[in-house]
Structure formats: C-alpha cells, structure tokens
Amino acid sequence: MLKSDKDTSAKSLRRGGGLEHWAERHLRYLMLAPTVLILLALTIFPSIYMFYAAVHRISPNPDLPWEFVGVGNFARLLSDPQFHVALRNTVVFTLVAVALEFLLGLGLALLLDRFIRRLSFLKTVLMIPMMLPPIAVAITWKLIYEPQFGVLNEIMFLLGLPVQAWAGDVNLAMFSIIVADVWQWTPFVFLLMLAGLASLPVEPYEAAALDGASSWRQFWDLTLPFLKPVIAIALLLRVMDALRLFDLVFILTGGGPADRTKVLSLYIYQVAYRFADPGYAAAISLFVLFVTIVLSTWFMKRMRLAE
C-alpha cells in the first residue's frame, strides 16, 4: 500500500514537472498568445469577410439574401469610369507627393546633419506636423485655403496677386491636397533619413576626402548607396500610406471639384455608404490591397538586386 502511494506520488511529480518544464520552454509563446489571438480576430476575420463580400451582390435591404456573382464585381472595375478616374488621381497623387516628400526630407536631413547639428530644437519643430492627427491637419488646411478669410489668400492679396479658390478650383485642387500631405509627412521621411545619416561610417568619407573627392561626389558614391535600405523603407511606407489617402480629400474637397481629387479610398467609401453597394466596395478594396502587395514585393526585390 505504501509502495503504491509512493508510485502514484512519483508519477504525479513527474507529470507536474513535465508540465512545468513544457510551460517554461514555451513561456514566450504563451505570453504572446493573447495578443496573437486578438490580432487574428482583428485581421483574419475581416479579411475573410471582405473576400466573401467581394463575390456577392449585397442588397441594402438586410432581409434579402446575398447573391453570388463570382468575379462579377471585379469585372465591373474594367468598365467603371468613376473607378478609372479615382485610380488615375491616386496614381498622380502618390507619385508627386511621395517624390516631393522624399526630396524635401532628404534635403532637410542633409542640411541639419552637416550644417546645423547643434540646433536640435529645429528637429522637434520639423516633426510637429507628423505628430498631429490627420483630421486636425485637414481642418487646419481647410481654413488656410478658405477663399474669403483664409490666410493664404490674405498673403496673396498683400502681395498684389490674384486670390484663388485653391481647394475649389479644378486646376488647383489636387495641388492643394499634395501641398497639405507634403507638409504633414515630409517630417516622417526627414526623420528616417536623419537616422540613416547618423548611422553612416566615418572612415569611407575620410578616405574620400584624402583622395580629393568633392562633397557632391561623396554624396553620389557614398551617402546614397549607404542610405539605400533606409530610402527603400521610407519610400515603401509612404507609397503604401499614399495609396489609402482619405482624410485630406474627404475634408478639403470631398473628391471634387469635378472629381479632380476623387481617390480610391474615397470612392470605396462612396460606393459602400452612399451607393449602398458593399460587395463592389469590397472588390475595389481587394484591388487596392493586391496593388499594394505587388508594388511592395516588386520594390523590395528591385532594391535587393541593386545592392
């Protein structure tokens, strides 16, 4: 009897010790499990639901069943003129805005890194726009562009120049959106470029200076190649963010005038909520997701090949 009790106790200890050992070995996974489950619930389920909705025609009447249409919603993209307008506007905005943000961000980073390193408060000032909520930025620029009492037209009047409608002009609306976006997100590129410059090795520049290389030559032959990974990350993040622009357009122009600033994110919103066609809106969303993944993959492969 005593031997049996001892055997049972030993088995319990071994079982308990094995469980404790397993928990210790997998502690990191156990601690991450709740976060992973929450992320899966917030990403996997909506993604599956979006795929399911994209192949159905969904009626605004919740009592009517969903009608399976297969690739019908995706086929509509080819013949939808409003989608083509939104796609063109999105491409124009992304190319121009990201290019300006990169050039200005890199230029400011080089300026602060070489000439005014001691004025650290300027870095804080330059990063303020990036830290503001997009809605606040959009409302601020809406007041700046106001035709009657906006500060921009006040400056134009004082300079003797004709006042403009800015966000309400068909020729200036997209330009106004780009200026506001560049103002807000150039600090993001500037911060990444400044961090990249701070991590550059000193020895190659000392050797280049001894060889008589000019500052311009050092920039092309040393700085740009060293910064290539940082530049790739900055451009990739900004392109991905520009493709889903919504706040500025929604508040400043609403997609007008004459659809000159209607971008894909705004069109998805209009299709889903104004035209009550969530199935087609899901198809457009999947198209944007697909384009973003393809561009990101292609861009990263190009950067690896260029190294």
UniProtKB/TrEMBL annotation:
Organism: Sinorhizobium fredii (strain NBRC 101917 / NGR234)
Record carries keyword Transmembrane: yes
Sequence intervals crossing the membrane: 29-52, 91-112, 124-144, 156-178, 185-202, 222-239, 280-300
Annotated family: Belongs to the binding-protein-dependent transport system permease family.
Domain ABC transmembrane type-1: 87-299
Organism phylogeny: Bacteria, Pseudomonadati, Pseudomonadota, Alphaproteobacteria, Hyphomicrobiales
Subcellular localization: Cell membrane
GO CC terms, sorted: plasma membrane
Membrane topology: Multi-pass membrane protein
Source organism, top-level taxon: Bacteria
Gene3D superfamilies assigned to the protein according to its UniProt record, in alphabetical order: MetI-like
InterPro entries: MetI-like, MetI-like_sf
Transport is among the record's keywords: yes
Record protein name field: Sugar ABC transporter, permease protein, putative
Keywords assigned: Cell membrane, Membrane, Plasmid, Transmembrane, Transmembrane helix, Transport
Secretion signal, residue range per the UniProt entry: none
